[in-house]
């Protein structure tokens, strides 16, 4: 591609940077505000080296295009036309989002309607970015294209930074690696997507090409526990297949400040926990609660009215993680939180209302905590939640931004009668077991 194309591409990617940073940007206008952007990120532009002509497997883009069969080339050009159409829609959406933000900043329009409009355009932009990624993948299935390849690379890197992995990311990453791309983030991003998607053959091939000692801790753990994760994934798939035949798992839609998330609840494997969750959701218990802890490559935690990690409903559930058909802690799994003990253990039967959504598989979680559901749509939304790590020390001058939150949870499929909720009887516990669950003395 001629060098004259680099400038429009840089302009477009500059807007893309604005979208992705604003999607996780500053909410510095109070708890109910959701307008802002990270100024440290919006000015960044892709390196000029990123838009050099592509060479795939020793051949230039023009060499490959000239050798393609007419039907393949036509299919690629059709996909590229769709990509360009989505690009125009995304550009318009990003400009509208920025205009809303600037008007809010300048006190021209500062009200809940403007805030909601900003959120909606931000979420629309994320959806269009994902659609463009799918369209771009369709292009590179047929032919190389400089602009599309750069976009796909940019999104894979963004997804790695935010913890979003799917089968499309895995395929795109594998195609780029096969084509000779060697960007440092590409191998771990594709390996994670392969593990999440259950392609452990590909994951192992990628891990063999990596220097484990130089990898981040989450990748080192994934490689170390890969055999166990594969067993858990296959076992969980078998259980899920049986559930799919019954087709009776309840489903809920969780509305968050980042968008909508659809979850499926494992009523056959964790009946008491699921019934408790549904009852709380229908009472509005979760409405307005923060994702008060969101840790990269680990989890997003909510369900605590106190926002400190100490909150509960006053009732505690009997553990269900030791049932013979219990589910495992995979990517997107919903896991009941329990009161921790020194040494990494938990108080038995101490789950109440708090739950976590896993951002990567955690092989050991099902040994001590109940896995009661999974995200079936919207992990891209969960990945954009503002990171909140209470264990990190805050500087005096540091601006602490409000967490994202659950706005409401709506049941979209439920049984007419719920299973009995089995609560733990505190009279069966020792004082040592009950101490972490008691309110602090005045």
Low-confidence stretches: 1-53
Number of helices: 14
Overall pLDDT level: 84
Shape: globular
Helix content bin: 40-55%
Proportion of β residues?
5-15%
Number of strands: 10
State the distance separating the first and last CA atoms. 71 Å
Q: Strand pairing plus helix content: what structural class?
A: alpha+beta
The run of helices and strands is HHEEHHHHHHHHHEEHEEEEEHEH
Biggest sheet record: 8 strands, antiparallel
Strand order of the largest sheet: 5-6-8-7-9-4-3-10
**How large, in whole angstroms, is the Cα Rg?**
23 Å
Keywords:
442 residues; eight-stranded antiparallel sheet; 14 helices; disordered N terminus
Task: Show the helix and strand layout.
Blueprint: H1 6-22, H2 39-42, E1 55-56, E2 59-60, H3 61-67, H4 70-105, H5 112-142, H6 146-162, H7 167-178, H8 186-197, H9 200-208, H10 217-224, H11 226-246, E3 251-256, E4 259-265, H12 271-283, E5 293-295, E6 299-302, E7 333-336, E8 355-358, E9 371-377, H13 379-383, E10 406-413, H14 431-434
Antiparallel strand pairs: 1-2, 3-4, 3-10, 4-9, 5-6, 6-8, 7-8, 7-9
Describe this structure in words.
The protein has 442 residues and is α+β, with helices and mostly antiparallel strands. It has 14 helices and 10 strands. The strands form 2 sheets. It has an 8-stranded antiparallel β-sheet. Strands 1-2 form a two-stranded antiparallel ribbon. β1 (55-56) and β2 (59-60) form a beta hairpin. α5 packs across α6 (146-162), α5 (112-142) packs across α7 and α7 packs across α8. It is globular and about 80 Å long. The chain starts with 5 loop residues before the first helix and ends in an 8-residue tail after the last helix.
